[in-house]
Amino acid sequence: MQQYLLHIADNALILGHRLSEWCGHGPALEIDMAMTNISLDLIGQARNMYQYAATLEGDGKTEDDLAYLRDVPEFRNVLLVEQVNGDFANTIARQFLFDTYHYFFQQQLCESQDPQLAAMAEKSLKEVAYHLRWTSEWVIRLGDGTIESKARIQRAFQDLWSFRGELLTPALYETEAVAAGVGVDLGAIKTAVEQKIFNVLDEATLVRPTDGWMHAGGKTGRHSEHLGFILAEMQFLQRAYPNAAW
Amino acid sequence: MVTVSDRHIDAANVQYGAQMKTLERIWEALENVSDPEIPVLSVLDLGVVRSVTLCQDNIELTAEPENKQLCHGASTDQPSSVTIQITPTYTGCPAIGMMAANIRIELLAHGFDKVLVLEVLTPAWTTDWMTASGKQKLLAYGIAPPQNKARIEKMLFDETAVPCPQCASENTACISEFGSTACKSLYRCLDCREPFDYFKCH
Hints:
Chain A is built from eleven helices and no strands. Chain A has helices spanning 2-20, 29-57, 63-68, 79-82, 88-109, 115-143, 147-160, 164-167, 172-179, 186-203, 225-240. The radius of gyration of chain A is 17 Å and the shape is globular. Chain B is of the alpha+beta class and 202 residues long. Chain B folds into two domains: 4-119, GMP Synthetase, Chain A, domain 3 (2-Layer Sandwich); 142-199, no CATH class. Chain B has helices at 4-7, 17-30, 43-46, 95-109, 132-141, 152-157, and strands at 49-56, 59-63, 72-75, 81-86, 115-119, 143-144, 172-176, 184-189, 195-199. In chain B, the strands form two sheets. Chain B has a five-stranded mixed sheet. A four-stranded mixed sheet of chain B has the order 6-9-8-7.
């Protein structure tokens, strides 16, 4: 259960952190605000989940211990969310692939037999619906846009496609969470997630990349080199000044 | 202004008279606590306050906003205290901490020194809980209030026209799904050309 909660929280925290890197750098003010708004939602969702995980862990643990004092191999996020921002098209493609998964994931999590998880999912789902709406529109706008924007978003999907598989391939703790009636059966949302991705790609007049070899490992703590850099920045203050608080 | 006694007439058992009055005072005090991001809205307008429980003279009374269970009383041996349940609007909204602190400060000013503010997540906050007067205040403040009942499908696909809060024209366009705070999106009126915030359905 603990691993499962950390997995959900880490996905949201790391992607939220990545998006926050856009703060002040968005291609337009409105886009800057949108990305930081989504970032805020995700970090809020991560906080709720860490707080819950900390209470289950007991022993005086807090959300900050979980966010700031674990090292790379202890993080359970998928590899997709730690990938670099790249250009705007790359960020949109990464976010869209995550949002499609995240939307159907939270929808199913509302049915969790763990009342706390279900309550958090019910809140998150409303937020994620707006994320998905925003990224879907941008995929379509870029894909069905100029020659340049189309080439960039197409390349972004090409580059990130191999990170898609991990989202829908359960780790052991996910299978256990399903068996316990608290987790989401990824097999059950697979078709809906893919259908949504394919529909939007079609509408965006983009070519669907071919499925080939897929990355894996993030869910069990084998991360790309990027995560270390994210944590170095995110955890610096807490590591340099232990127990520092606002 | 809606008061506790208005909404809880049938529950106003005579023997709880003093407690009812106190509860009403608390409710009125909460009207003074505003959303730090949108100061024209009180925490009651926003629907963030889910219940107020008063323990006084061995009586426990709870009041909840309309459409919810009415005020109910029970005997208790708890010491005098006020417990207020609030629910965050958006999960990551930083305003919730400030609202909790301001509720405590406001009630302290009214002489309630044992105040507990609890955050509850379920049922999830929705713009459907925003009061009619809250929507009016938003409009007068220049923010278009939520236009519909909150439904997930609508959040994904809705294309409802949002009237301009300045000139009431429905000839408006969405500039960005995400505005100055998590709860708003950014619109522009195509007639009077003013940009405006829209408090989106949630």
